Amino acid sequence: MSGLDLGSIIDWTGLFGIAVFAVSGSLEAARKEMDILGFLLIGCVTGLGGGTLRDLLLGATPVYWIERPEMVMICLVASVATYFLAPLLTSRYRALVWMDAIGLSTFCITGTAIAMAHGASPLIAVCMGVMSATFGGIIRDVLCAESLILSSRELYVTTAVAGATAYLLLQLVNVGEMIATLGAFSIAFGLRTAAILFGLKLPQYRRPAG
Amino acid sequence: MSGLDLGSIIDWTGLFGIAVFAVSGSLEAARKEMDILGFLLIGCVTGLGGGTLRDLLLGATPVYWIERPEMVMICLVASVATYFLAPLLTSRYRALVWMDAIGLSTFCITGTAIAMAHGASPLIAVCMGVMSATFGGIIRDVLCAESLILSSRELYVTTAVAGATAYLLLQLVNVGEMIATLGAFSIAFGLRTAAILFGLKLPQYRRPAG
Amino acid sequence: MSGLDLGSIIDWTGLFGIAVFAVSGSLEAARKEMDILGFLLIGCVTGLGGGTLRDLLLGATPVYWIERPEMVMICLVASVATYFLAPLLTSRYRALVWMDAIGLSTFCITGTAIAMAHGASPLIAVCMGVMSATFGGIIRDVLCAESLILSSRELYVTTAVAGATAYLLLQLVNVGEMIATLGAFSIAFGLRTAAILFGLKLPQYRRPAG
């Protein structure tokens, strides 16, 4: 963290992303009809997984939530709340998709910012952003034996790459932390929204015969 | 490790848990009819996986078994022994369930103890205990493409949470390492036994229509 | 890295293995008809996964590709090339099997060499070689929801163990880095080739009735 301003915006953005991803994990646990501890476990893993992988790869251990138990607490609270409130939703699947979209758009920014703060080169910073954003959802889907987001959902990785790259470029032109964060979030979330609403996709590789 | 007594009890408990989990991994390899090297690989991953994740997250690297190759040796011996002795068992599935229960009850204690020795807060120590106890089984099930313990088995995560919490509380009231370990093991193993024998479960989340 | 000669051979071997594994990952993405970003992601994960796990376990963080972005670049280039060239292949599955075989034979050597350079004992060095060689392929198969190489392919883990052990023994008898590398590669690749061509397998464990 290089300064108060950057630190605190990233921090709040990060907390928000964690909570949202924890909810998305819990919604998946609801779809699989797990018990309350299944909700807590999947909620924590989804909320904290991306940032944990980032910290491990950067060598920033102990990983961030070990010295900040409130991060774990947020996931636990979000998971319990989902357990009781999910029945009120008319479509848990739709809620999951949107929660996932918000988390994705948030984490590609915080992951990139933290990697830059560790002195990573631009290519690596973008990679870290993409991994932070996608790994929580990947591990959620592996644990819930769901078909992976990688092969099925619209512009998923693309969104993370776009958000991370936008944040990096906005930082390079020095527009300030707040604008860089909001700008990159808008681009990522807008892209994902368009993809979900209009079924946008990159062309799939088509297997020729043989 | 803060002292000889604590260190040696945790150590022996840990070695025992590793061997038992290695056997549970090999029994799964037997069910999948793998070859001997499949037994060795799944045995090692199941036996060492939970503690490896704990060490990575705590930043206690190189992870514990790198400087103690005898840990790996235990897994190899346990896996080879299972390869030759498994045919003598009348039910390999039942053996797997009980081996897994013993490993689970052991690792939730050692994981919590080691996290406390690293100065982790109570919430984090319990999380570490739960992860150490469940991760070996989770990775075993992912590698063997088995349906995950998370969604199918009785009071699985609950057992780990109960054992880790009991150990923490017994330590706080200063009953001594031996009693804390035995007490927590009894609670965890008793709970899991009851769950297996009587089919106890926490209420599952029920999806409302829609 | 203990010297220029060792360092540079290992380095080039490693770069070659990374590229080959990235291609194997991309070929799997082609079989799953992913989009271009799916190719890039699976290519990077497969190419860099084994070495990343090795570095994490050894505590050699930040992991190797963070300070050497050209490693990531190789994977990206290999993945894009595969995206455009794969349609020209008459059998993408056969290409995948052979790329995987070359990567496997390469990484069991570099993994062992790097672990030895970190002062690991012989048993641990062989384990690291085996993990470096197999983890990329395992994570590729998990992400692509492919049935795991562990349970289906011929002499897969055996090849990695043989290559790692051969390299270790050749180093112990001091034949020089070049001969140790070529010798171990020949043994591993020869074994895997024979296994693929002639369907060689270790005897599978057979479940008795009951």
From TrEMBL, chains A, B, C:
A Pfam cross-reference name: Gly_transporter
Keyword match Transmembrane helix: yes
Organism domain of life: Bacteria
Organism the protein comes from: Sedimenticola thiotaurini
Residue intervals of the Glycine transporter domain: 12-86, 98-170
Signal peptide coordinates: none
Designated name of the protein: Membrane protein
Compartments where found: Cell membrane
Keywords linked to the UniProt accession: Cell membrane, Membrane, Transmembrane, Transmembrane helix
GO CC terms: plasma membrane
Family: Belongs to the UPF0126 family.
Membrane topology: Multi-pass membrane protein
Stretches that traverse the bilayer: 6-27, 39-65, 71-89, 96-117, 123-143, 155-173, 179-200
Keyword Hydrolase: no
